[in-house]
Amino acid sequence: MKKLRLSLLKHILFFAVLIGGAVPPKPAMAGPWCCMVCPMMCCNPGATNGFITQAFNNYRNNFIMNSFYRNQFEQQGLKPMADDIRAAAVGAGMMIGAFLDGSAVNMAQATMQSLNAETIKDFHVSDQICRFGTLSKSLARSESMLETQQAVFSARAMARNAGREFSSGAAGRGRDNYERLKNFVSYYCDNSDNDMGLSGLCIPVGNATETRNIEYNRDIDYTRAMEESPTLNIDVTDNVLTRDENTVFNLFSYLYGHTQDSSRLSGTSISEFSGSIEKYVESRSVIARRAVAQNSFSKMMAMRSSGSGASHGFMNLFLIRQLGLPSQEADKYTTAWNPGPKVAGYDDSKKPSYYAQMDILAKRIYQDPEFYVNLMDTKANVKRISASMEAIDLAQTRDMYEAVSRSEMLMALLLDMEARKQVDENYGKFSEVRQ
Fold it and tell me: Which residues, including other chains, have CB under 8 Å from residue 147's CB and lie 6 or more apart?
């Protein structure tokens, strides 16, 4: 640095000398002084100016541009400074980019972890969803079996009322009453009835074939025959007569078509006797109206008949574990279990009915406190539970719709019967007027 200062000072002094020589002296001394100092310049002014210009250019190129600017300022000043600034700027940009990359990676990882956690949470199905699924297993098949049972019940009732061959009403009222009395003595007779007046009719007490107390008067007791259990040991698609089948068939006969025709009309009697055609048509009209009423009872029996049984184990497990029923009560609920002595075939347990399955899905499952505890779950599981409840509600609403349709049909039939009475009265009055 000290050498730089000395060099700069020398150049400044040299430049001052040059400037001083270029200034014209006083006229009196111009010639001699100039010639003494620099004879070449004083004697030739043009050469003087060229010399000064050349000296200035040399000074600028050698000192200002080469020595000071390029060597000192550019090489040792600006360039390193520019390098430092560039390096600092690039380093800062790299650091900012690294921060942005790190932030993006962290945000992506956080998003992935959040979605992963939500997926695990949403797809972790609760026990309640599984319970809906297992308890409703093969519900459609049970409903299909229900429709088959209903058709068989209706066909049997039609055969009895129409006097079809081999039915209890084939020969008329006498044979039908005899069949019912025989069933009453064999299965439903209670010695204590009629003030102990049935001892001569019922099987004596202590006899091996005495009527079991579980069946006393069940042929006329709707509550014990139908409402005692949601599942009855009924399956009319097989060839085995069971306790509940025998009971409901006899109850059916007492409720509908209790009084059959005294005798059946033959083809010859219809054509030979006056008014026989009108009587037969009227008889068929009664059978048709009775069939409408019988259909409701057939539907109720079919709903409690044996179902598919695919959810039997789950239903028992739910009743025992969730509702706290004893195992025997659970079996009675689902399979028409008989606590007393059993007769092979006659007392065989059946599979849970459609009615029992729907009773659990639409009612019993909400009597379990754990159901409401399971609602404190993820939003996805709560939505799944809601969807399951809506599905069960739709099935129940459909059953209610069918029940209302049957009620409307019965109401329409009652109105028609009342209208027939009025028509008959008016027709009788009109006949009297004509006579």
Answer: 302
